[in-house]
């Protein structure tokens, strides 16, 4: 089993879901006391979010690149980036890294296509819904992505940053 390097913390709430899901998948596959061989590098999201909001994606890519290299040096055999939005800088993040990135949009496209569906809805941060770094990969897999209207995109973005990223899940 390869050691999986998880680059997370963006947000910690999503990284916890990745960890939990990976543990469950390994238990389901191998049973007993098996668990995944993981290295988790959890970043402080506040500085990353500040780079997002100031449109400084170049610096964000540089920061993630340093941590992707750290995961590789620590023995990871592949990298998972535990966030949709930061896949915007996936190419920059992987410069000089010699292990693969399991790209979330490619994995999503594969899962969607396996069900026979062709028009997935996308609810994510405004960056992910409004820019093409994610939807282009879905389109390349033959999928036509449905994006919410402007007001719904704003509200979804707000909920992600002000609630979900902070671990707040309400009935609404």
Secondary-structure-based class equals: mainly alpha
Task: Work out the strand percent.
Answer: 5-15%
Count of individual domains: 2
Helix content: 40-55%
CATH architecture of the largest domain: 3-Layer(aba) Sandwich
The dominant shape is: globular
CATH topology of the largest domain: Rossmann fold
Strands of the biggest beta sheet: in what spatial order?
2-1-3
Average of the residue pLDDT scores: 96
Largest sheet: 3 strands, parallel
Radius of gyration, Cα only, in angstroms? Answer: 16 Å
SSE pattern: EHEHHEHHHHH
CATH class of the largest domain: Alpha Beta
Number of strands: 3
Span between termini: 40 Å
**Count of helix runs:** 8
- Unreliable residue runs: none
Description:
- The protein has helices at 12-30, 45-53, 57-73, 90-93, 104-114, 126-130, 132-140, 150-162, and strands at 4-8, 38-42, 78-81.
- With 172 residues, the protein is mainly alpha-helical.
- A three-stranded parallel sheet has the order 2-1-3, with helices on both faces.
- Strand 1 (4-8), helix 1 and strand 2 form a beta-alpha-beta unit.
- Helix 5 crosses helix 7 (132-140).
- It is globular and about 45 Å long.
- The mean pLDDT is 96.
Layout of strands and helices, then pairs:
Layout: E1 4-8, H1 12-30, E2 38-42, H2 45-53, H3 57-73, E3 78-81, H4 90-93, H5 104-114, H6 126-130, H7 132-140, H8 150-162
Parallel strand pairs: 1-2, 1-3
Helix pairs in contact: 5-7
């Amino acid at each position: 089993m390869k050691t999986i390097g998880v680059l997370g913390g963006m947000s910690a709430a999503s990284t916890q879901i990745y960890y939990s899901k990976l543990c469950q998948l390994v238990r389901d596959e191998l049973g007993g006391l098996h668990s995944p061989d993981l290295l988790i590098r959890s970043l402080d999201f506040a500085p990353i979010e500040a780079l997002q909001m100031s449109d400084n994606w170049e610096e964000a890519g540089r920061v993630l690149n340093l941590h992707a290299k750290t995961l590789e040096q620590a023995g990871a055999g592949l990298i998972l980036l535990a966030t949709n939005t930061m896949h915007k800088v996936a190419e920059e993040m992987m410069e000089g890294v010699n292990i693969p990135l399991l790209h979330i949009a490619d994995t999503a496209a594969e899962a969607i296509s396996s069900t026979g569906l062709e028009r997935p809805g996308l609810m994510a941060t405004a960056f992910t819904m409004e820019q093409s770094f994610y939807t282009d990969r879905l389109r390349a897999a033959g999928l036509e992505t449905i994006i919410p209207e402007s007001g719904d995109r704003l509200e979804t973005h707000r909920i992600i940053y002000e609630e979900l990223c902070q671990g707040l899940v309400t009935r609404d």
